[in-house]
């Protein structure tokens, strides 16, 4: 008897990345074991959140931290904390923010959709996003001009989704904010470096547990002690609707310890998977195969397939057919408009590469 019985589920090979719509990360047996163990036990949940926060903080080198159900929740709770602090009466009132500082500044090129709009996460606790500058160009003056007595925080989004030029650096952003006595929230959801933004002086940094860290559906916020207290206390208010479970906390801690110890997919393993697939699909008419590194600067190599005129089918048709087999293969399709398709090595399991190679040859060689 399996929980899958009776469900018509497609078998999925994820060659796309750490994608929420494909289930984030397939966790290791250790991580799954920690989750099962926690699931079968009881806890004082406030204590579990406090204690796990201390452990996360120690692992990432921050003053304090708080587990969340994901990075999106982390953004909402961080904005809430910047508005209410630790004052319980204010926490209970959200999303009503009358009389509170509630404006949150964001650079236009950072106001992206990661699966949902970042600005919507700001609005959940009652924050008002204030987009500054232009989509491809933001100046110091644009940010300074927008700061007023109702500004609660400035948010910086580090992501491949963002415009990758013309934006202020985190360093400049932190400097401007601190000169005005305001906190900076960094959305570093998918970033691999868990220390960088804390080291650069960010006040709250938000991560997803299911992306680089390789944990279950989860996340955390780390940063300054007072603001993290404010994040945690939101669980008695709007945070209740984004409650983090004991299983998620257990799995996150297990994955995070391994990640910080460097025990998960090293760059050399990623390179090896990319090389294997590149070799396997070389010499096919109509596609130029090369290796390309992540556009947001993370150490992620990917197989890059560029479709030319004489390909048997178009890139668009190719990705659509890949998803239709008895095993659905999802590629990374951000550049489909340029007739390019990428294969991400990170989520692939050992047997996946051969299946991908075989299917690509079937589709493109007929
Ligand atoms: C994935 C992502 C999020 C949301 O993370 P979840 O853990 O899925 O809630 C937020 N911001 C950015 C930039 C992301 O890439």
From TrEMBL:
Cofactor requirements of the protein: pyridoxal 5'-phosphate
Segment forming the signal sequence: none
A Pfam family per the record: SelA
Record key words, sorted: Lyase, Pyridoxal phosphate
Lyase keyword on record: yes
Modification type N6-(pyridoxal phosphate)lysine: residues: 211
UniProt-listed SUPFAM superfamilies: PLP-dependent transferases (SSF53383)
Source organism superkingdom: Bacteria
Keyword Ribosomal protein in record: no
GO molecular function list: L-seryl-tRNA(Sec) selenium transferase activity; lyase activity
Family: Belongs to the SelA family.
Listed name of the protein: DgaE family pyridoxal phosphate-dependent ammonia lyase
Originating species: Candidatus Fermentithermobacillus carboniphilus
């Amino acid at each position: 008897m399996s929980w899958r019985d009776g469900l018509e589920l497609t078998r999925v090979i994820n060659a796309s990345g750490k994608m929420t719509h494909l289930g984030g990360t397939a966790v290791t047996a250790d991580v799954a074991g920690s989750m099962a163990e926690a699931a079968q036990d009881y806890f004082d949940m406030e204590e579990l959140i406090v204690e796990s926060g201390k452990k996360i903080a120690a692992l990432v080198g921050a003053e304090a931290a708080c587990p969340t159900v994901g990075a999106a929740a982390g953004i909402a709770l961080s904005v809430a904390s910047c508005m209410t602090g630790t004052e319980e009466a204010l926490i209970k009132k959200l999303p009503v923010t009358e009389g509170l500082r509630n404006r949150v500044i964001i650079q236009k090129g950072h106001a992206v959709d990661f699966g949902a709009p970042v600005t919507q996460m700001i609005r959940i606790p009652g924050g008002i996003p204030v987009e500054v500058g232009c989509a491809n160009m933001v100046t110091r003056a644009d940010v300074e001009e927008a700061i007023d007595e109702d500004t609660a925080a400035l948010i910086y989004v580090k992501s491949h989704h963002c415009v990758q030029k013309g934006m202020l650096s985190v360093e400049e952003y932190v400097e401007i904010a601190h000169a005005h006595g305001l906190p900076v929230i960094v959305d570093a959801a998918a970033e691999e470096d868990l220390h960088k933004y804390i080291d650069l002086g960010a006040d709250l940094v938000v991560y997803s547990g299911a992306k680089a860290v390789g944990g279950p559906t989860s996340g955390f916020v780390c940063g300054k002690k007072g603001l993290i207290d404010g994040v945690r206390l939101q669980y008695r208010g709007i945070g209740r609707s984004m409650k983090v479970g004991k299983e998620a906390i257990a799995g996150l801690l297990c994955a995070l310890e391994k990640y910080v110890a460097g025990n998960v997919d090293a760059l050399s393993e990623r390179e090896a998977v990319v090389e294997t697939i590149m070799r396997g699909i070389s010499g096919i008419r109509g596609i130029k195969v090369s290796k390309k590194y992540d556009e947001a600067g993370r150490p992620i190599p990917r197989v890059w397939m560029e479709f030319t005129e004489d390909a048997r089918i178009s890139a668009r048709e190719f990705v659509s057919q890949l998803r239709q087999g008895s095993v659905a293969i999802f590629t990374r399709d951000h550049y489909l408009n340029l007739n390019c398709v990428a294969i991400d090595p990170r989520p692939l399991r050992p047997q996946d590469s051969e299946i991908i190679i075989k299917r690509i040859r079937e589709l493109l060689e007929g």
